[in-house]
Write a structure and sequence with these properties.
Chain lengths: 474, 440
Amino acid sequence: MPTIYIDGRPVEAAEDQTVMQAARAAGVEIPHFCWHPALSVPGNCRICMVEVEGKGTDIACNMPVKAGMKVFTNSDEVVAHRKAILQLTLLNHPVDCGICDKAGECTLQDYHYRYNGEPSVSVDAKVPATKFNELSDRIVLDNERCILCSRCVRFTREVSGSNGLGIEHRADHSRVQPSSDGAFRGDPYSDNVVDLCPVGALLSRRFLYRSRVWYLEPTPSVCPGCERGCTINVWHRLEDWKLKSVATKENSRIARVTPLENPAVNGPWICNKGRDLADLFERPRTTQAKVGGRPAEIDEAVAAARRLIATATRPVALVSSWGSNEELEAFARHLGGRLACFVKADHRPREGEVLEDGLLIKAGKNPNSRRARELFGDAAPSFAPGTDLVLCWGEGFDPALLPAGAKLIVIGSFFDAATDRADVLLPASTQLERDGHYTNFEGVVSAFAACFPRPAGVADAEALFGLLAGEDAT
Amino acid sequence: MTGRKVLMDFEVTPTSHTLEAYLARGGYQALAKALRGMKPGEVTQEIVDSGLQGRGGAAFPAGRKWQVIDPHDGQPHYLVANADEGEPGTFKDRWVLEHSPHTLLESMLIASYALGVRHSFIYIRGEFDLPWRRVSAAIEEAYAAGYFGENILGTGFSCDIFVFRGAGAYVCGEASSLLASIEGSRGYPRNRPPRLTVKGLFQRPTVVNNVETLSNLAWIIGHGAAAFRQIGTPKSPGTRLISVSGHIARPGVYEVELGYSWAKFLHDECGGVSCDRELKAVIPGGISSQVLTGRDAKVLTPHDVETMILDHDALWQAGSSLGSGGMIVIAEGTCMVSLLRVMLRFYHHESCGQCTPCREGMGWLHRIVDRILAGKGRPEDIDLMYRISKANDGTTICGLGDAAGYATVAMLDRFRDEFDWCVEHKRSKYDGNLECRPST
């Protein structure tokens, strides 16, 4: 463990670390564009220059640590150098922060204010480049904003493996471009390049001009897209910036989803499906309890369901593999003894969806199958002869399979064939409206938190189970 | 005559490049001597003793580069001849490739033996057609004669050689991007450490030497390091191939013994400046070496122009270098602002675009000098050009970015008055003239 000195402070570093890594581990931020902890080191942005006593300046990201070395991150030479590099980086950058989605979380913007802050010294025209360069139906590239750090290119080579992006031409005509075989369009991890981009060159079309980032806040959550259970940040409108009169729907919409770095599960990445959670959660919601197809008060519907359960001779429960650990345990506690329980796959792979790959995506498209199977067994749902009641929790049940004469209780959040057919329908909250935990296929438990309030007329499934079992019933 | 010869020691005829002619000149005897009578370490030691310096531009001692390689460390090593001669004004390697390809091949075999190399490469500039054909033909001859392949000369030493043609990028003359190009990647230089002699081609220890550097080996092994040291100056032994172009009566490639009088070389061998003009400036070693004024030569050497010698140390003292040996002679009446524009247009076009200072800086410099020549220069533009050049100094991944900055600074330093005049009068002092004809 060599000791190095960063700005006079002794720092313990590992043998194979670079100065950048050692500094970062010690909490010293050395400015960088092209360097990323999960990617290779190209050393092309040149802004991470530090001074080493007796050795002059060099880039920190490619500098191996050496016992006793004295590194200065803010010497006069380093400061002057950063300023010069920033002037060059910004030379052909359009500085259109006013209309840039990245403004507010842009490293170029931050560094400019922190280390330069002066107006441009150039009077010559900037080099024009492609705007709105459509890389795929998910991503547009503004080549003028691009500072050619090559993070996105390296991502497609080193992480996603699609080799979908490259750099064409030379000098200040260099352009990031998609490969001609269209590999980037089919890259299931392509949206990560939007987060990787240190400036606003790569833009998500889903988020394009949707919101300024400082109106948003992230809530940690878990992606329910597959058994991997990647940890994510769900971005939604800040409380103080909630819209009061127009477009108030925006207040309870997912603005965007970004990965929440988690070495135990997904590292710094998520797949594109995780970015599209809005499609999943913004489907038409069940907000009205129904009994026999007629709207009813929730208490009335609960009472009806409880009667059905109490009177059934052979009731079967289809347990949701989208339930949180807490909900599944509550179900087992309250209703597990009364009903024959089977774990149901709420979602199956959609057509064209990547089934499974070596990076993150898993074939099971339900987030909590593991915990559900631990509690309720592996058996596939089946209805013994004489089944007279089916309690279906969650989606994915085809009511055509319902045994003749059996009653159907549905606890669900979204409309589907089962909710239409239900004798009793109990609207339940979604993952975004409650706290909980999922257990992924490897047994790693991750927490999610509520982003939005529960809509009126919707109950938490966990509370419903107790009511249905007749406990605490009035 | 320009002193003793090492490479151009034969008469060029239509068949002098063939194996037959080369063998008649005593070719491949140095290889036999090395393979049969010397250990690899002894060959390396001989090169170290000879004091041979790199001829590609940096004049790094070739032996020191070789000593980093341990031929017995159990991993493959590679030798690459850098024949991507792209420095403007330089066309000396082309002479070797066209007229004496076997000298290069024999030398590469000797080097491969010394460094434990099984596979060696020649990376040849894509624009070189005749040189490529000559080298390829020479390789076929050498394979047929048993100088390449397995069990060479019955000694058990095996070596194969591959010719790789570049695709026209200046930056691929830089060793690390050259290797990237061979590997099939985009020709981007890469950061050191690790050095190429530690991790080079295919992540293995690799020696990249200039064609001319390598071509000296056959002579050194054949005649011995001591004999080589007899040629040239104590600090810079040997000869240099100098390609002279520009405003000179007899342009071409000359072999000059290091330490030879510069003035004599220019006046006697090359016939002096065209049209009997005064000498305004010389770019001594490709456009990336700093320009020297005709006056500099007089001021910076001990006495006068007659004693300025062609030698690395002398040129370093004068604030320039022998570089790649591409000498460009500039006559009085040439517009240096236009000349700088030509240079910057080249650097702008050829900057690989990987690292920020060179990618943005070269284009910026180019646009500024364009504007100055268009009569829209501002007095502060000169300082701005200094600043941009300085931002390139020591901050780029490869040496080409620094060199472009140095070359620009030297032009500004030594012809500042011309730039100021151009800014003040909104036109070039010499009407943008770059040519030297009796009428101009």
